[in-house]
Known about the structure:
The complex is a heterodimer of chains A (293) and B (315).
Chain A: H1 2-8, H2 15-43, H3 47-55, H4 58-91, H5 97-104, H6 112-123, H7 130-135, H8 144-170, H9 173-180, H10 185-214, H11 217-223, H12 233-242, H13 246-273, H14 280-292
Helix pairs in contact in A: 2-13, 3-13, 4-8, 4-10, 6-8, 6-11, 8-10, 8-11, 8-14, 9-10, 10-13, 12-13
Chain B: H1 2-9, H2 32-42, H3 51-78, H4 82-89, H5 92-125, H6 131-137, H7 140-143, H8 146-157, H9 164-168, H10 178-203, H11 206-214, H12 219-248, H13 251-257, H14 267-276, H15 280-311
Helix pairs in contact in B: 3-15, 4-15, 5-10, 5-12, 8-10, 8-13, 10-12, 10-13, 11-12, 12-15, 14-15
Amino acid sequence: MAAAEVLSKGRRPGLARLLLIAVALLFLGLFLVMPLLVVFVQALAKGIGAYLVAISDPLAWTAIRLTLYVAAIAVPCNLLFGVAAAWAIAKFEFRGKSTLITLIDLPFAVSPVIAGLVFVLLFGSHGWFGGYLRMHHIRVIFAVPGIVLATIFVTFPFIARELIPVMQAQGKDDEETARSLGASGWQTFWHVTLPNIRWGLMYGVLLCNARAMGEFGAVSVVSGHIRGLTNTMPLHVEILYNEYNYTAAFAVASLLALLALLTLAGKSFLEWRQPELKHAARQVRDRTRRVNT
Amino acid sequence: MFLKSASEQCPATVPATAQPKFQDTMATPVAAVELSKLNARRRPPRVLPGFGLTLGYTMVYLSLIVLIPLSAVFIRSQGLGWGHFWSVVTAPRVIASLRLSFGASLIAALINAIFGLIVAWVLVRYTFPSKRLVDAIVDLPFALPTAVAGIALTALYAPNGWLGIWLLSFGIKVAFTPLGIVVALTFIGLPFVVRTLQPVLEDLDREVEQAAATLGASAAQAFARVILPALWPAILTGFALSFARAVGEYGSVIFIAGNMPMKSEIAPLLIVTKLEQYDYAGATAIAVVMLVLSFALMLGINALQHWALSRHGGR
């Protein structure tokens, strides 16, 4: 603030500031707020009655149930992995650590459509394991297991990349003290490490869950869009929209938008509790610095 | 082999201290205790447990979920043969879709770099009402499912939408044209630039700016000569992250794009189309091209961050 005041002293005070604030707010309003608003306006365009009918549709409910089910498997899987990876990377020194971190981030560089494609190539009817799966009457592609796998793939790095910097910042003094006082490995983890990383853990779970429930591209490739069986909420939105059933599409979309708003609120709350969580970029920078030194 | 034969000579159940006569000879039996001491000399002892378990689990899970499935794409594309692969990826429709994906992503990333810088600047340097709310909403594209973003943007920019009707009066069509793709990609890429720039702006040493001001530099000069050079690595990183995300984006684009082959069909959509026609070879070939380009981009971003670190390593 002081610098801005010095800089604008003697010239039209605050004009540049007002202009920049106006441009920023206008841009955010146009690109972020209006799309969010339009979801709710369209959902309620035909009144609250039509809205309630749309979201109480049995097919909408099977989609909601499947979305919750998939997230309930994918998030714990990646949580377990995230904790294990962060423990190995933050508490120990070993060769190839920075390569491992890059590999963990790999799914972020892969198009969701390709994430779906890889599982079709593995488990689809013409895939590597296609014959074996057919013989044993196991369906992966165009079935729930494929949706779970694709979701795990796209949400793979979320928890690990939040936990690694948090655990690195904690260091290992607390754990070493606990060990020297006679605590077992598990006791150390449960009573020392876990309380230290709990906010970071929740942060990662929150972001991972938002993506898991909202994933579209990867899931769309492996799901086959079978109504009442393999339709998640985002896929259900697509089907309703393509049938020109806009009110219903936006009604289901409004539930996902509410989930997004809850995620943002939770994120803001966790950042308020633990300010270091903010700014993944700073963490990445600190992380690379630590890896390099 | 030596250790094994030594322990066969002298069973480990016998404490090493019980045989003092062997102690100084080469054939000292190595009991389990001695072995761990030997290891301890080579490496500092690990107080914390679980290294093998957690690293092992990490490697297995990473391989099963990410590395093996991804390698499947490359191995399957080998089966095509170079000639077939080349003819697939140089087909006019594929070239057009790749050009559109990368071109629209480039424009969107440029828009994000400019407006992301303004947003980050305003959020770090100025105070205004509801600033915390505005800061929180920047992450909306990370949290909002892409399909929802897609139908919302389409509803806004369609010829009868809130913005579309207004833009149409100027003769600008957004929805169902490549312009619509740029709008969707701008939406999903914005947080990358803002969130990369914010911490760098917060760390920026304001004394340098003040020095520039006292030496008679105008605000614009101070920005161009002092602030911007320090921000370049972060701007480029944010730009590259936003670009990389945009290239692979599918959900938010397909609703607004119109999806006309050769005109408004993005590369990820072409992969899906080929899959739906059971053209696995074609889908795999396009996927390989996209993966190689994305990985190159990712390595570029990493190099960029190292460069930024070496330039500003002091902080």
